[in-house]
Each structure stands twice: as structure tokens, then as C-alpha cells.
Design a protein that fits this description.
This protein is mainly alpha-helical. It has 10 helices and no strands. It has one domain.
Length: about 230
């Protein structure tokens, strides 16, 4: 049995670093180069980790309404830094935080004891549609749902993660953009991290609690200023 040495705080730090590297490489590294592919491969860690932690948060939180509203608030705050940095119009896409929010809502519906199964399917489908323009879109929603459904069975969590990742992310990428999409295999780096995850939240602190939420829009805003204003 592997030694469980990684807690949720460690996962958050890894996700933040991967996200920062991924977004910074969009600006500083020539697209399609070997270095670019390597950096984006590492950057693929961010989304599955964040999705996993959202599913974990669903079970840990003492107030699901506040948890949901916090995600909604930062999805709104993060929207314009995201579209500004990527150079797209405000309606063309939105940040990963919105996808995390839709995933959380979908998991809430799936775990609702009074809701009938057909309505649960309909609710998850609606959340997938609403997440369509978000970074990682419905893929992230489905990951969160299955992480939650299979909580307590790492094997089932990882199998569902792999199936969703291969069918909806890796294979379509290879078919659409060719060999440069090899970086998408980077999502598989998530697997060893979860194998060593101990299920412990780690030390509680406001910095850890709010760090990711604040860092996400802030680093996008800083990168935008650096890319388009200072070094333009």
C-alpha cells in the first residue's frame, strides 16, 4: 500500500502552481514547441485537482449554501480577467470557476435524497449545458459528479476519471489538432497524486481557505497587465 502523504492543502498548492505555469506559458512560450507542450502537460493537473477538491468540499463543508455562493461570487469576479487575458469577447467563454460551480450544483442534485433519478439526470445535463463555454466545460462537471458518486472507492473514481478524460478530452484533441495535443495526456498525472492523497484537509487557515479563490482572478489580471500594457 502506498504511503498517504498528500493532504488537500498540498493538492491546492500543486493546482495553483500548475495553473500559473499553464497560463504564463500561453503568454511567454511559443505555441507548439517542445517546451510549450511540456509546460501545458504539467498545467493539465490543475483542473482535475480542483474538480476533486470541489467534490471533497461537498462532503466536508458545514454550509453548502455558503460554499456554493462563494464559488458563484468568484466565478463572477474571475470572468473578465479570464476573457481579457485570453483576448476574447466577454460572451465567448468564461473561467474554470464557473465550471466548478456547475459541477458542484450537479453533485448537489445527484446527492439529493428526495429527487427522483430522471430529474437528477436532467439536472446534470442542464449543468453540463450551462458549463459549455467555461474552461474545461462539461468535462469538469462530469468529473466532479463521479468523484462525488464514487467517494470512498478510489478505483472507481480513477476509472471514471480516465474514461471521461480519454473519451471527451484526449481523443477529441488528438483528432482535432494532431500530435501537439499530446500535452492532454498530462491529466493522467493526477492519478499518482490521488493514490497518495490521505483524505485529510490539512491545517485550517484563512489563507488556505481563500488563497485559491483570490489567486485565480488576481494572477490573470496581473498577466493581462504584463502582457498587454507593460510589455505590449
Amino acid at each position: 500500500m502506498p504511503r498517504k502523504i498528500i493532504n488537500s492543502n498540498t493538492l491546492k498548492v500543486i493546482a495553483i502552481i500548475a495553473m500559473f505555469v499553464d497560463h504564463t506559458s500561453i503568454w511567454l512560450v511559443a505555441k507548439g514547441t517542445t517546451f510549450d507542450i511540456l509546460l501545458h502537460t504539467f498545467g493539465r493537473l490543475a483542473a482535475p485537482i480542483m474538480g476533486y477538491l470541489i467534490a471533497e468540499g461537498f462532503f466536508y463543508t458545514s454550509n453548502i449554501k455558503k460554499y456554493t455562493m462563494r464559488l458563484f461570487l468568484f466565478a463572477i469576479i474571475s470572468h473578465f480577467p479570464f476573457v481579457m487575458f485570453l483576448g476574447i469577447t466577454w460572451w465567448q467563454g468564461t473561467s474554470v470557476i464557473w465550471g466548478l460551480l456547475m459541477g458542484l450544483l450537479a453533485l448537489i442534485l445527484v446527492k439529493h435524497k428526495q429527487l427522483k433519478v430522471p430529474y437528477k439526470f436532467l439536472g446534470v445535463f442542464a449543468c453540463c449545458i450551462l458549463a459549455w463555454t467555461a474552461d474545461w466545460n462539461y468535462i469538469l462537471v462530469l468529473w466532479i459528479v463521479f468523484f462525488g458518486i464514487f467517494r470512498g472507492s478510489m478505483k472507481k473514481q480513477l476509472i471514471s476519471f480516465g474514461i471521461i478524460g480519454f473519451l471527451l478530452y484526449i481523443i477529441p484533441g488528438l483528432l482535432e489538432i494532431g500530435y501537439t495535443a499530446v500535452f492532454r495526456f498530462g491529466i493522467l498525472l493526477f492519478i499518482p497524486l490521488i493514490v497518495f492523497y490521505n483524505g485529510i484537509r490539512g491545517k485550517k487557515s484563512p489563507f488556505i481557505k481563500w488563497g485559491f479563490y483570490v489567486f485565480y482572478p488576481l494572477h490573470l489580471l496581473i498577466l493581462y497587465i504584463l502582457k498587454y500594457i507593460i510589455f505590449n
